[in-house]
Amino acid sequence: MFVEVPPRFRVASAPFDGPPDARTIVLAPSGAFGDGRHESTRMCLQALAVFSPPAPFRMLDVGSGTGILSIAAAKLGGRAIGVEIDPDANVIASENARLSGVAEHVAFGTEWPEGTFDVVVANILRRILIDLAPEITGRLARPGLLVVSGLVSTDVPELIACYGAPLGGARPEVFERDPWRALVWRISS
Q1: Of 61, 76, 114, 171, which sits 20 to 30 A from 136 (CA to CA)?
Q2: Could you report the per-residue pLDDT of 72-106, keeping only the tens digit for each?
Q3: Which of 67, 75, 83 minimizes the C-alpha distance to 101?
């Protein structure tokens, strides 16, 4: 099975014949979230493809699930750390990174890493995005790119208010696909 995510990625289910190329993300079957079919995941992949800074960059993937977004960052020349509370998902994500040929450029764990990141992505539920707003915005380097998704239209005003203040009042770009929304902040300083 392939899921095309223009302009840059395609997601393939393992087993995958041949070596992974620069655009293919290979995922083993699992119960972890993020197989490329959900609209929120596709919007995050598209935001990374279009807005990521030039390589090399560092990315924090909050709620990394299968590791799909961390793997995408590595395919773009970045290094990524995925934070996921489910240790089983972290094992799956590490295997997916190996299958995708980027294992040396990603790491997964349950603990928040130190420091700031050029890109922070969080594709999780509204309530968790609100609860983690201080941690997420505190990890974003200036300049930096922040992508939050997993939202529906009624979530957008609350998330803009919650994230806007710690980001100096910056307003995000809002992307939509069916009922789902992604917010993208491109912070210049």
Answers
A1: 76
A2: 999 999 999 999 999 999 999 999 999 999 999 99
A3: 75
- Both structure tokens of 2: 């392939």
Helices (DSSP H) in 52-182: which residue ranges?
68-75, 87-99, 126-131, 133-138, 156-164
The one-letter amino acid code at 47 reads: A
The DSSP output letter for 140 is E
Can you tell me the distance from the alpha carbon of 136 to that of 92, in angstroms, rounded to the nearest whole number?
23
> Contact, 97 vs 82, CB < 8 A?
no
Confidence (pTM): 0.96
Q: What is the number of other CB atoms lying within 10 angstroms of the CB of residue 179? A: 11
Q: Are 96 and 28 in contact (CB under 8 A)?
A: yes
**How many C-beta atoms lie closer than 10 Å to residue 104's C-beta?**
10
| Fold exhibited by the domain 2-187 | Rossmann fold (3.40.50)
Core vs surface per residue 60-80: b (16+ CB within 10 A) or e: bbbbbbbbbbbbbbbbbebbb
DSSP annotation of 139: T
User: In the numeric block, which tokens belong to residue 104?
Assistant: 């040396």
Interhelix angle 68-75/39-51, rounded to 10 degrees, is 20
